[in-house]
Specification:
Layout (H helix, E strand, L loop, with lengths): L8 E3 L6 E3 L3 E4 L14 E4 H6 L8 H8 L6 H16 L7
Antiparallel strand pairs: 1-2, 3-4
Helix pairs in contact: 2-3
Length: 96
């Protein structure tokens, strides 16, 4: 079931520090670290984990993908992301 992580080294995705797995915190980009089947987790060191926003990330991954994260230039991505995020924060904005 639970593998031994005591001798595994991981890298913090925020700062790049290499540390023992047992000293790291799991990060699940989909926001559901309790659903473990078929997932590969990324890791944060404890200081970076404390700095993270721990608010819900419902829909965030889909919004990032739709906005072109990692596939387009920064300016285009930010424009698309702001447009998409704006759509989610203005309830019924298209209704009269």
């Amino acid at each position: 079931m639970w593998g031994s992580d005591s001798d595994q080294q991981v890298t913090c995705i925020a700062c790049g520090e290499t540390l023992d797995r047992e000293d790291a915190r799991e990060y699940d980009k989909h926001g559901d670290r309790w659903s473990r089947e078929g997932k590969d987790f990324e890791y944060l060191c404890k200081p970076c984990h404390r700095e993270c926003c721990h608010q819900t990330r419902d829909g965030l991954e889909e919004t990032l993908v739709t906005a072109g994260a990692g596939r387009t230039d920064r300016k285009t991505f930010l424009k698309r992301y702001c447009e998409l995020a704006g759509d989610n924060t203005e309830p019924n904005s298209t209704e009269s």
